[in-house]
Structures are given as C-alpha cells and as structure tokens.
Amino acid sequence: MKIYTKKYELLSAYVDNELSEAEIKRLEDEIRFSKDLQEKLNDLKKVKKLTSSSVKSVPENHYFDTRLSAAIRNDGPWFFRIRKYFPIAGIIALSVALMVVLKVNPGIVNHLLEKQKSNISDFYKQNLKPLLYAADLTNEDIFNFAFYHQLPLDNQKHQYLFLGTGQNGNQFFEIKNGNQFSNVNNLDKFVKGLNLNSVQKHQVDSILSNYADDLQSQVLVNEKNTVAINSNIWNYNKAIVADLVSFAARANREEMRNVLPAGFNSYYNNGSVARLVSEVKSANGNKYIFITPDTIFSDSFYFDKEKFKQNMKRLNDEMKKMNKNSENFSFNFHIDSNFVNKTKIPSYNGEFKIFVDSNSCLIHIPQVFVPQIQYPNLDSMATNLGKAADLFRSFSFNFPEMSRGKSFNYKYSYNDSTDGYKFNFRAFGLDSTFNFKDHKLNSMTGKDFRRFNFNSPDSLEGFYRSFFGDSTAFNQKEMEKELQQVQKQLEQFQKQMEKLQKQLPKNQKQGKDHKSIEI
Amino acid sequence: MKNKKKKTDVQLPQILNLDDDFSLIKRFIDGDESTFNLLVLRHKEKVRNIIYLTLNNHELVDDIAQEVFLTVYKNLKRFRFESQFTTWLYRVTINKCKDHLRKIKIRSIFTPIKDEEEDFGYSISPDEKDIAEIVRKAIDQLPEKLKIPLLLKDIEGLSYQEIAESIQCEIGTVKSRIFRAREGLRNILKPYESELM
C-alpha cells in the first residue's frame, strides 16, 4: 500500500510537471503497462482541473490602499510616527539654539546690526562732496537760510532743505519741492528797511559771505543720491541771525529798538554774539544726518574742510561738473508706501519719523545731535533770536491791513513785547479825491520805499505825502498848493452859484412875460 | 573592449529590471518608500486569494491582507535577497492565516491525518449545484497543512521548491501533501463524481 502511495505521489508530481526527465520517462513506462496507474493519473488530472477552476476573485475594499497607508503611518517605526512633528521640533530646536547663543553672547545681534549699519553707512558715505559750494550760495540764500531756515539744494532752486522746529520742540528737516515763500530780494528789503548806507550794506554782505564758506561743509551730496546734513547747521542758523541782528542794531539802533522786542536789545553789546559765532564755528560738528534713497540715519563723518580748501582748485573743476549734475539734482523718494504708512503711526518709536508725500519729505528727528554750545544769555537770547527772525518777517512782508476812515491805524505789537506801536495818521480832507478804500499797505511790498521817503516803520507818518498805486509823488508844499488852488476854485464856484441863485427870481418874473426860459 | 562589453552586460539587466521586485525593494531600502505601494499593487491580488482560499471567509481578507503588508513593510528593509520576494510574501501570508486560525480556535477542526486512509469525516450537501462553490467548500474541508500546498500549486502556480520555502518544509513533504490533498478532495467530492469527473 505504501509502495502504491509513493507511486501515486509521483503521479501527482507528474501532473504538476515537477519530475525530472528520467523520472518522467520511467513513470511513463510504468503507466503504459499499468491500468491502475492510468486511472489514478486521470483522477489526479481531474482533481487538479477542478481545483484550478475553483478560483473566485474576492471583491476588494475600495479603501484597502488608504487603510493600509494609514496603518503604516500609525504602526511604522517610531521615527516615522513622529516625522510629522519634525518641523515643529526643528523650530523649537532652532529657538533653543538661538536662546543659548544669545545667552552666551548677548551682544551678537547688536554687533551684527551695527556691522550691517556700518556697511550701509560706509556705502552711502563714499565720495561725499559739498553741495553748497561757496560760489553757488548767494548772500540772498544765506539771508533766507538765517530768517527762513531754508537752503536751496540745487542751482535751479527746485528743491529746498527746510529746517524747522515742531510744536513739541522736535526739530526736523524737510526737503521740499519749490520755494516756500513767494517774496524775493529779502536781503535787499532788509537793507532798505534799516536804511543802511552802501558801506553798511557791504558789511552785511561781508558777514553773509563769511558764512558761505562754512556752510558749504554742512550739506554734502554724492552720486548715490545721498544728502548728508550736519546737525551743527542749526547753530549756524542761529549764529547768522545773531550776527545780522547784532550788526543791524549797531548800524541803526533806533530802528532796531522799535523793531525788536524788549530784552533783545541788551545782548548785542556784551560781546555775546562774537562768542556765539566763535563757538559755532569751532564746534566739533562731525555728526551728520544722512538722507538716502533707502534709509535715514545719523553717524559721524569727518569732512576735511582744510583739505577741501587746499584742493579747491582741483575741486573747482569737479564742482563745475557737479554743478552741472546738480542742475538735475533731485532727491528721489523711494520709500515704500507701506513704510510710509507705518511711519505715520503716532506710536512709531523709530529714531526718525518720516512723512513723505508727492511734494516733500519731512523727517522728524527726536534726538538731535546738535553740538552743545553755550549761548550767551541763552535763555533770553535764543528765544529772542527766533522772535527777531519772525519780527523781520512781519516787518518786511506782512503788513497788517489798514483800516478805513479819516485816519488809519498801523498797530504793531508782538506777543512777548512790551512795546506797541499805534500810528494815527492825519487823513486827507477830500475823501473823494483820496479814497483809501481798496488800498492796502501790503500792496507796497516790493516797492522802493525810499522813493516815497518811507524808510522805516517809524517813518510811516510821512506816508500821507505819497499816493498809492501810481508812480507820481508829491511833496507836502505842492500838495498844499494844489489843495489851496482847488479850494479857491471851489470858493469861486460857490460864489457864482450864489450869484446865479440871486438872479433866478428875476428870470422867473421875466419868464412870466416871456412864458419860458431855456437853460 | 572586453571591459566595455562586460559593463554593458552588467548595466542592461539593471535597466530592464528597474521595476522588478528586487529593484523596488532596493529603492525602498534606499529611502524611496513610494515603491512599497508598487509592491502592494503588484502582489495584493495573490495575497488576497491565498487568504480567501485558506480561510474561506471573504470578510477577513482585507484585514489579514493589511496585516500581511504591514508586516512586510516593517521587515522589508531586512530582506536578504536570498529567495524570491513572493516566497517570503506568501510565507508571511500563510503565517498570518495560521495565526488567525489559531486565534479563533478552529484548530480543532483539523483531523489527524493517518498514513493509510484518510477519512475526513465531512461531506457536502448533494443539493449544491455550483461546481466551483462545491470545490471551494471541499478544499476548505481539507486540513491546513494539505490545503495550503495544494492552493499554492493549483491556484497560485508556485513550484514545489517555492512552496517548500513558503511553508518551510521539504520538497518531498510538499509533494506528499499535495497528493494527499488531492486524494482527500477526491473523496469529499465523491458524491458528485458523476457531475464533476
């Protein structure tokens, strides 16, 4: 039985084609002569066929792959399971590393920032040259700088640097397009207003020219569109004002006493102005504020004025070229609008506050690096200097409107002044002839007052000698003569009228006879 | 020249076999885990069939197949390339099926096999008309150790050598078990002899 079983196993393997060629040959010989083996072979073939044909595909779950992926994720190696936390872990590790670095070396960030700042500042400091070359700055420009705090940034005077002080005392720069005041020839008006003679005028010019040389190193520019402004420029502004006012007071003290507020007149006698000017000029003004297209920063910068002077000749050629460029010089504001909006937020605590619009760039400077200079009588004088400047402005350009009537008042007052001026003018008797109705003193702005014998605010009483609005001038005697003539003519006319009146009843009687009178 | 030819001979099979099982496994070991999806796609049908024919329960197929591939995924990086991937895969599949059968305590249904006559002691209802269903039920009544080699041979088409490696036994044992499985199947199907045979 066991032998047959072995034979049947061979038959089964034969059906599966798992025998060697020798085994096959030997088995086939046996099968050929054994009916039992033949029947068994047939049975095995049939069973194999039945088994092979019984396969039925099992419908696959649609989510098999998804479930398998999820199972792999959930049951994978530990690092596979935590792989999703790798980004967070990385951030945490980075933060910890950063904290450790900062703990060990707390100044590294500041160092990097300073290094970066230094790189930026070095880049923008390259090749800085004076913009306000002496030859370009006129005395008029320096005068306007003193009293109106503005300097032209280009020869064409398209852009101005304006120095200002806000209501909260913060000082600021402003680069504006176009002139900010319409009146011109202010220096000339100043000279004429003080009735200075030619020698005194020359002295004023000399004072202003003296500052032109110093001012040139206060504003520097380069081809990278950088404008570097020395913070000492504020002191120069005050020094020029003090110098001019002091000179004006010496030249015409009477006029100045009438013009300047109380307390101001005393300082110019004690040599304080000379000291102020001297201190300003000798101040170590190496602190510049750099306004660049990318940023605004303050840093030390040494401009070698002496070297500049020595190389003046050589620089002169370059400056000529520079002048050519500066004709087209225009500070371009490439500040991102988002940044502009940000800087308008009041809580912005940056070192600078920048306000940019299409026409100007206003830069508030909370920390002004103005060299500390001891002003003489600083408390009163520094205030008075500013007031004096304002006073000149009113004096020169802003005459108050004149009241109507038989007399007009020119009232001059100042907030901090104990002096007030009220001029009562004798008006002309003939209102119909001299009608002041539409005339304003402001209309005299820009006129040559000396032609009208009008030299100062004090001499306004002589104003009645003149007519407004035309070029005809009369002296008092001529006027009186004319008036007497007119008066005589009027008297004659009155007499004739009276005579005619007396004659009128007669004519009326005669009219009854003649029935009518034709006139 | 000789070296060049040799180089070509070496490179050519690599290019041709880029997507065979070994190449996919190598790429998986190298970190390209997307190749595992290709292995699953390629072999899941056979794995599912073995599970189904072994357990004769289609509801268990997906769960057992998932366990199979999960086990393969975990151990694939330790694959030694000494045998066919399918051999290892089928062994894993069969082991999973065995584990499942053990778990549900159906081991008792296996009847001790006698060397002489094998009386399986069960039958199929004579009313069964679906021949394939009758045969599957008959196969299901076979003991596990006979049924699996038979299925691997007649359904999956594996060689005796592959079957021996899959179920980790000798080729002679495989040969014997397949014959006994067929004999047992023939006895079970005797009532339908006139219709089937």
The CATH superfamily label of the largest domain in chain B reads: RNA polymerase sigma factor, region 2, helix turn helix motif
User: What class would the helix/strand composition of chain A place it in?
Assistant: alpha+beta
Write out the strand line-up for the largest beta sheet of chain A, numbering strands in chain order: 1-5-6-7-8
The pLDDT mean of chain A sits at 67
The unreliable regions of chain B are 1-18, 114-122
Largest sheet descriptor of chain B: none
Number of domains of chain A: 4
Q: In angstroms, what separates the terminal alpha carbons of chain A?
A: 181 Å
- Percent range for β-strand residues of chain B: under 5%
CATH topology category name of the largest domain in chain B: Rna Polymerase Sigma Factor, Chain: A
The number of distinct structural domains of chain B comes to: 2
Q: How big a fraction of the residues of chain A is strand?
A: 5-15%
CATH-defined architecture of the largest domain in chain B:
Orthogonal Bundle
Low-confidence spans of chain A: 333-350, 373-382, 393-474, 509-519
Helix content of chain B: 55-70%
**Span between N and C termini of chain B?**
63 Å
Please explain how this structure is put together.
The complex is a heterodimer of chains A (519) and B (197). In chain A, the strands form 3 sheets. Chain A has a 5-stranded antiparallel β-sheet with strand order 1-5-6-7-8, with helices on one face. Chain A has helices at 2-15, 21-33, 35-52, 64-75, 78-81, 86-104, 108-125, 139-148, 186-193, 198-215, 233-251, 253-259, 272-282, 305-310, 312-326, 337-343, 378-397, 476-514, and strands at 129-130, 150-152, 159-165, 171-177, 219-221, 227-230, 287-291, 296-300, 353-356, 360-365, 409-412, 421-424. Chain A has 519 residues and is α+β, with helices and mostly antiparallel strands. Chain A is elongated and about 185 Å long. Chain A folds into 4 domains: 2-52, no CATH class; 64-106; 118-385, no CATH class; 399-465, no CATH class. In chain A, helix 2 packs across helix 3 (35-52), helix 8 crosses helix 11 (233-251) and helix 11 runs antiparallel to helix 13 (272-282). The termini of chain B are far apart. Chain B is elongated and about 55 Å long. Chain B has helices at 2-16, 21-29, 34-55, 58-75, 85-103, 131-140, 144-154, 160-167, 171-188, 193-196. The model of chain B is unreliable at 1-18 and 114-122 (pLDDT under 50). With 197 residues, chain B is mostly helical. Chain B has 2 domains: 11-107, Rna Polymerase Sigma Factor, Chain: A; 113-196, Arc Repressor Mutant, subunit A, CATH 1.10.10.
